[in-house]
Amino acid sequence: MLVEAQQNHQRPAWNTGRIIGPKPPLKPRHIWAIRTRLQHDQRVRDLAMFNLAIDSKLRGCDLVGYA
Q1: Which residues 6+ apart lie within 8 Å of 38 measured at CB?
Q2: pTM to 2 decimal places
Q3: How far apart are CA 33 and CA 18, in angstroms?
């Protein structure tokens, strides 16, 4: 009886009311802001990977998978 009651009760979806779909691309001023921040913090590896991702148009998850 308890199992049947749980099966009939449906939970709302986790993304109900949220905007879903692809995010808009970064604007050039955002890219330069990220580059400046990485240079200022002396994060050479992250800066190199960011530049490679931007230049090759790879997604972050694809780029990290190769590193």
Answers
A1: 46, 47, 50
A2: 0.58
A3: 28
Q: Where are the domains of the chain?
A: 25-67
Q: H or E element: which one contains 8?
A: helix 2-8
Q: What is the pLDDT along the chain (67 residues), one digit of tens a residue?
A: 555 555 667 888 888 888 888 888 888 999 999 999 999 999 999 999 889 888 887 776 776 766 5
Contact yes or no for 26/44 (Cβ under 8 A): no
CA distances in angstroms from 14 to 8, 10, 65, listed in the order given? 18, 12, 28
